[in-house]
Design brief:
This protein is an all-beta fold and about 500 residues long. The protein is about 0% helix and about 40% strand. The protein folds into two domains: about 120 residues, no CATH class; about 350 residues, Neuraminidase, CATH 2.120.10.80.
């Protein structure tokens, strides 16, 4: 929306056209927004005898309502560098004292330019002073601290703790199942600051990200155009490189790094069907190879490596529910069965069965090698612990249901934090489901395996599901993003100190 300095009228331009308001009436100018110039949110301002629009890709477009039939791409010898103009819109204003446009900022930009209607020029002294990152806020034991926000809201993203202690957040969606992202960000826990990482070649969500033995990160599949391929991020060079096409394109799958450094990928779904297939990535050969299939197809399973190098897979659904997690919980007949993969034989065998079927659950490996599983149920159910020596499950006390919570094993390896998630609203008096209304959770519980008991912890500042939970080197539990399945992902970040 622009106020014309020429006659004081109000002008509005966008993807559906341009309109002028004057003399108490609107009139259509009949000129659509120019194609191929990025997001509609990029702004245009009146200068001289017309409008100027600076697109996020660095193009300059002009339109003189009295003379031009439409927008015209300007052929300029010098232009400001491209700057993304979605979340990070540059500031752009008309300076009537000099009859020029002033452009400042945008993503990763710290410069100022002026445009006189025909030529862009950098403004002397136009860079702002660098911003000093805020130090991490003081943390109290058993408390949450709000940290620097993500550059954009994300849901269904991944977070990987790098070898140097920083955290790489990759992809996700702007809102559930829509508008997948190719962007990545890195969090430095020591300075409480985020920095932009290089973007992937393909946007993706519900993918996997696995830390390789050499410190690089393998990203596989996911929703979006990257479903059938993989990429590797090198933190040392801040570059992505192709890692080859999958044998079976997939999202909602699991990936586990094996003891020999290879990565096992299993299950998930393709449009219309859950998958039982599994494949292995060799980072030395940079190639994919098929391996033994799961005994049953599993969409949204969970997987961890057991002591001794075998891989445990639990839960998920074997029927198609359209990829929706809440539909999988309510109508997908979640699986209570488990399977164990032996890399030496390339064969899956049945594992011990859980007490209840689960999908959208969370798993963590305790300090002694046992496996903790919680959530992924419609109704209240116990968490369970797999004794890795006897290969049997033991149930904890019953807890309220949580779909897609985040979990972490706190310092010492005997306590597990369970935070957030989503629940179908139930009647606390009868602990019975009401059959409708999903509610995001900010509540937090901690299970002490030594005492065999649950305790409540302070709630998070932001209720969320489909977030990421990461244990930092300093013992804090970092939670990033997530959001409301009906609205959008959020950019909130917080950390728990035990």
């Amino acid at each position: 929306m622009i106020v014309s300095p020429k006659d004081g009228s109000l002008l509005v331009a966008g993807s559906v056209g341009a309109y002028r308001f004057g003399n108490a009436a609107w009139s259509a100018l009949g000129v659509p927004w120019p194609d191929g110039t990025g997001y509609v949110g990029n702004v245009a301002y009146f200068v001289g005898t017309g409008f100027v629009r600076f697109a996020g890709n660095g193009e300059t477009w002009t339109w003189r309502p009295e003379l031009d039939p439409g927008w015209r791409k300007a052929a300029l010898e010098c232009s400001p560098p491209a700057r993304w103009a979605d979340t990070y819109r540059p500031a752009m204003a008309y300076d009537d004292s000099r009859d020029v446009i002033v452009l400042f900022g945008g993503r990763d930009r710290n410069d100022t330019w002026t445009f006189d209607g025909s030529t862009w020029a950098p403004a002397a002294g136009g860079a702002a002073s660098p911003v000093t990152p805020s130090p991490p806020p003081p943390a109290n034991a058993g408390s949450w601290a709000t940290l620097a926000r993500l550059a954009m809201g994300r849901i269904d993203q991944t977070a990987t703790v790098l070898q140097d202690g920083r955290v790489l957040v990759v992809g996700g969606s702007k809102e559930a199942e829509a508008n997948q992202l190719a962007t990545a960000e890195i969090f430095n826990p020591k300075t409480n600051a985020w920095s932009a990482a290089a973007s992937m070649a393909y946007p993706r969500a519900r993918h996997t990200a696995t830390l390789l033995a050499d410190g690089r990160v393998l990203v596989v599949g996911g929703l979006g155009p990257g479903r059938g391929n993989s990429e590797i991020y090198d933190p040392g060079t801040n570059k992505w490189s192709p890692a080859g096409n999958l044998i079976s394109a997939r999202a909602n799958h699991q990936a586990v790094r094996l003891a020999d450094g290879r990565v096992l990928v299993m299950g998930g779904r393709q449009p219309g069907r859950p998958l039982s297939s599994a494949e292995i990535f060799d980072p030395v050969l940079r190639s994919w190879a098929s391996t033994g299939s799961l005994l049953v197809a599993r969409d949204r399973p969970q997987a961890v490596m057991l002591p001794g190098g075998k891989v445990l897979v639990t839960g998920g659904v074997s029927v198609d529910t359209g990829g929706s997690l809440d539909a999988s919980v309510l109508a997908g007949s979640p699986l209570a069965t488990t399977e164990v993969y032996d890399p030496a034989t390339k064969v899956w065998i049945p594992g011990p069965t859980m007490s209840v079927g689960r999908v959208g659950h969370a798993m963590a490996t305790l300090g002694n090698g046992d496996v903790f599983v919680v959530g992924g149920t419609r109704d209240p159910a116990p968490a369970e612990i797999l004794d890795s020596r006897s290969d049997t499950w033991a149930s904890t006390a019953q807890v309220a249901p949580r779909i897609a919570p985040v979990v972490g094993v706190l310092v010492g390896g005997t306590r597990v934090i369970v935070a957030g998630g989503l629940v179908e609203k139930y009647d606390p008096a009868t602990v019975q489901s009401t059959g409708y209304t999903f509610v995001l959770l900010d509540s937090v519980d901690v299970f002490d395996t030594a005492r065999g008991s649950w305790s409540s912890a302070p709630p998070m500042a932001v209720a969320r599901w489909l977030a990421t939970g990461s244990m930092l080197a300093d013992g804090r539990f970092l939670v990033c993003g997530g959001g409301n399945p009906l609205i959008a992902g959020n950019d909130a970040v917080e950390a728990y100190t035990a």
